[in-house]
Amino acid sequence: MTPLERTADVSVIGLGRVGLPLALSFADRGLRVVGIDNDPARLSALREGAMPFQEAGTQELLERVRRGGPAGLDGADAPGPDDADAPGLDGADGPVLDGADAPGPDDADAPGLDGADAPVLDGADAAVLDGADAPGLVVGGKPGPRGSGSGQLELSERVADAARARHIVITLGTPSFSHIEIDMRDIRSALDDLLGVLSPGHSLVLRSTVAPGTTEFVAGYLAKHRGFSIGEEVFVAHAPERIAAGRFLEEIDTLPCIIGGVGDRSGEVAAELFGVFGAPIVQTTPVQAELAKIWANILRYTHFALPNLLMMDCERHRANVFEVIDLINRDYPRGGIAQPGLTAGTCLRKDFAFSEERSNAPGMLLAVSRVNESVPLFLVEGMRRRIGSLANRKVAVLGLAFKADTDDERDSLAHKLVRLLERELADVAVHDPHVPTPTAPLEEALRGAAAVVVAANHSEFREPQTLSAIAALAAEDCLVVDPWNCWGAGQVFAYTAELAAPAVAGQDDRSRETKASGEQTSPPAKPPA
Ligand SMILES: NC(=O)c1ccc[n+]([C@@H]2O[C@H](COP(=O)([O-])OP(=O)(O)OC[C@H]3O[C@@H](n4cnc5c(N)ncnc54)[C@H](O)[C@@H]3O)[C@@H](O)[C@H]2O)c1
After folding, report:
1. Domains of the chain, with CATH numbers?
2. Which residue has a Cα nearest atom 13 of ligand 1?
3. What gap in Å lies between CA 96 and CA 32, rounded to an integer?
4. Which of 21, 56, 384, 436 could form a disulfide with 248 if both were Cys (CB 3.0 to 4.6 A apart)?
5. Which of 171, 214, 293, 297 to probe ligand 1 with, by most ligand atoms within 8 A of CB?
6. Tens digit of each residue's pLDDT (9 = 90 or more) over 409-427
7. pTM (2 decimals)?
8. Nearest CA to 484 among 459, 509, 449?
9. Mind listing the pLDDT tens digit for each residue in 442-455?
């Protein structure tokens, strides 16, 4: 089969919270990008110019990319998305959008997925299309200025269209099975769709978080089914996404980009692509890149499990967790414990399992997970101890997102908290100003509540007005449950009258400052012991 004509610089497979900001950022640096997702609703939203989720600055970026593409997608001085002749985001006429003229795995003349049907292109017979040899497709590796305006984002539902670019970046989800094992089904499915259309010169970069050994598995899969020499003909690397949700545009061109390439040249080729962001590039082996990513998340998951366990310990001993944390950290060079909170989210909740799969200390990280997962139950039991049965009593839950100031509800412990409260037969009212799930207005959620739980420490909730609204609208003796210490009162469980009291003795301005950053917080880095 003739390889697909390479009309783009980079394809991004999976336009989710990682892939979409990345695809837009490549386009913003002047690259021609093919963005691929199998969710038609997501593609429709993008074609209409709407970001399908919140990520700071990306709505403006999407609009800039729509305006800046070669076809001029703003509709003002150039054909726009509704224009019948305009290639680009409209999906109808763009070169890779309709799939009708693009051969893919379903095409009769496309090579099949087994090694027998697929022509094996060895390096000697096939011209290797590296950036230098392929006119018009050069990704120079030099940082492109933001908003360079010459980029383009084309959209497709077909994974095989990714082969129109030399660089293919996989940003698909990698959940974990409940069997303590990575669920690679989306990645396997994409690989199978790509097998028939890959050709020498292609570079495949895994941006998804993966279990140790996965990058070598992908390389082996391509070698097994297509006979490619990985690192010479076709390139495979892992370049893990390490940006925190909400900070993509802030961090993409500053965070060191770790790249672990298979064979001789894969790392170098992947660096040509990611070099456009201008961040330092750190070359390593594939497995070290995989371990660095998952262990950074294990570190955070464990770091926050300790204050959560301490919070439960303090309840048992009738101690105040915020005072104990202050005693640990105050002017002590070997302190450094973080603050309690609800710790989960789509990454922290599952990435530890990628180590636990083959652990030498089975159970250690499962115990960490159990601590974090038991915080909602701890809060419900604490409420029952103080105000008795929750049956038929109104409980307001503030926040459904997994962390502050995001609309991402995936794997949020707030949902678990709501389920547990419902199992107590409580009348649960939820308010969250960020998430797509419909929730009640704040006033409605609070009115007559016997208890209010702050499940996500959104900026809005940390305002004193929220506390005033609780005092005004909730029941007179309302119990406020605030593991985040949003208002500096320094009590996980407190009645509204107590919350008007001054902040906990010993809680200094510095610790309140870190609270205001909106995440589950840690004290400033401590000097070495
Ligand atoms: N979300 C984060 O903050 C974050 C941070 C660092 C790393 N990661 C990792 O990045 C990866 C992606 O995470 P995410 O949060 O962006 O996931 P996501 O679920 O938001 O995005 C995945 C996208 O892939 C699409 N998709 C699924 N199967 C497909 C297929 N066969 N073909 C085409 N599209 C398909 C889905 O429709 C979805 O839009 C995961 O490995 C995750 O662990 C995520």
Report:
1. 8-284 (3.40.50.720), 293-515 (3.40.50.720)
2. 173
3. 12
4. 21
5. 171
6. 999 999 999 999 999 999 9
7. 0.84
8. 459
9. 999 999 999 999 99
